[in-house]
Amino acid sequence: MATATAAFAAVPVLRSDLNAEDRARVLEITRPTADFSQAEQFETMQGGAGTVKKLINPDIFSHPAANLTFEGRQEFMVGNGLFRKDWVSSPSSTQASDGLGPLSNARSCQACHVKDGRGTVPGFDPLERSDVVALLLRLSIPGSSEEARKRLHQGEVASLPDPVYGHQLQPFAVPGMAAEGSIQIDYREVPVKLNGGETVALMEPTYRVNDLGYGPLHPDVRFSPRLAPPMLGLGLLESIHQDDILAHAAVAKPDGISGRPNWITDVRTGKQVLGRFNWKAGQPTVEHQSANAFSGDMGLSTPMFPSHYGDCMPAQTSCFEFPHGAQEHLGEHEVPGRLMEFVTTYSQNLALPQRRNVNDERVLAGKRLFYESNCVACHVPKYVTSRDAKRAEHRFQLIWPYTDLLLHDMGSGLADGQDEGDAGGREWRTPPLWGIGLTKTVNPNATWLHDGRARSLLEAILWHGGEAQVARDRVVAMTPAQRADLILFLESL
Fold this sequence. Notes:
Shape: globular
Protein name: Thiol oxidoreductase
InterPro entries: Cyt_c-like_dom, Cyt_c-like_dom_sf, Cytochrome_c_Peroxidase/MauG, DHOR
Organism: Pollutimonas nitritireducens
Oligomer: single chain
Structural class: alpha+beta
Largest sheet: 3 strands, antiparallel
Keywords: Heme, Iron, Metal-binding
GO molecular function: cytochrome-c peroxidase activity; electron transfer activity; heme binding; metal ion binding
Mean pLDDT: 92
């Protein structure tokens, strides 16, 4: 099997928050290892000092970071309640919990992020299919007019919505209003032959929308399915210094890998900022991502997105006739600023569990294969977070997220054809891998990739194309025993 020895090169540390001595320390500790005889120092503590050692059970993703202060834990618990709360339509006797919709994808955050992990797509067997909740269908159309192209170029909007159905299809509505439609997924088996005689059947999805409630979609509409990702370590990802992310974008890497940042507009300041979250790095902060979900997924207003009508479009005139849930004595938004702070604290501080079996001989062999296959060119193993991170518990922590938070061309097989900010139709942000080995412990029905098409970690690898094609082909060329070791390493994360 050919390997990518150049992948072990260290990326320079040019951070503005560090003095020369600290830069040298950070460079040394984040240098990719070349020793696979034993685990690295602090490797079990993948979430830094916030890592928790708890009983491995379906609640393992739902613990607060171990280094949260007493006050921080109090805010976390309140945020947990809000994250799990079912919202209802207005008017309602539960005035602090109404305002859902009028159009929505779910009634709670937890409905999509199952136990703070991945969402669930409908079953691959037609007889097992269920309603789509955690899988959103994003909608966009090309910029056909000069004005539309100008708005995209200047960052006023990340994408152009369908003129009737908006930025995403919403299958639920309040009583008295029609839902937008229902998603139907059809799968086609794609066999892939591996070295050693094994054949893996990949499931290639196609998407249709049935029962349209407001007439036809735009003839050029593009669908982008998006599965709810896990919530682990978001505050730590937010605390990776921007200079480190941009340094990885600037350094040439083997196999034609060239990650790009997604620059997007901060809705509060109007300035261009670095995107870090969501499948195409279309959101800059945890707060922004949370407020966007309240608005788009549940139709709830926040200080950042103040419309009480979420993704309702002007063509859906009846949508604006329904009462909203803002209460004068509680504030002008359905989710007031203080509640947003609680949800943001919760979302920033869900703890990483300790790594398991880090010194197991086969796990170490799988780790070597992960490095030698050049998976680390995108799934960058470790960082030291910023000294001036917003929250004290996130500052100057050695963390192991296995991501560069950059966009990469993943090939035609995974392409959605939909642009989002600077992200193109074949590009996706490198998802973090920490916690991935406990995915099915938390949600036995969970699957992988942006649309949940991969039923196993091996299937997820085999869908890699574009910049990841060479690394993917190295996995195909492995012996069955080597592939099993690689998967064991991933399952230890």
